[in-house]
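so my prof wants the structure for this chain in the tokens format not the other one, which i didnt know existed until like an hour ago. anyway here's the sequence
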Amino acid sequence: MSPEGTPISKVTASQPCAAANLVVSALGSSKAMGGGITTVEAISTSDIPCNLEGFAQLTLFQGGKDLHLKIIQQPKSLSPAVPPARRIGLARGDRAAFNVQWKGYGAAADRTTPETLWFSVNGSEITPIRLDSRPAPFDLIDGAEVTVTRWFYLGPH
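here's what i got, hopefully its the right format
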């Protein structure tokens, strides 16, 4: 554990994780002060240790249309308990995550047309992220600004 109480990966992995070897889901959203935040979790299913590093690239589609989000990479986590960024080694069953924060657009956002969030890991292939049951959990409009943190380690599943 780090001094902040967050686990630190003890796995050394030189191979980057592939999206095909990760089960990725959004852990719900919370709304506060006109905005929202969600944590996206990835669980490794790879038999060979792999690593995550830097920022995931996100694309949000609503009704099949790309919302062309402006992604702001935040070097520090939105949570003070998360240690500084580093390469994260994952063994099978280990979890890592990143946070996504946005300013909500309220009534200007389409809250009924289903959304699909896609991400690219380590600059490779893209894959969809499982969202909660609501059709449009992100109250965003075309060109909205979204802040994304670096990957951080959560520990074994």
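also thought this was worth mentioning. The chain has one domain: 19-156.
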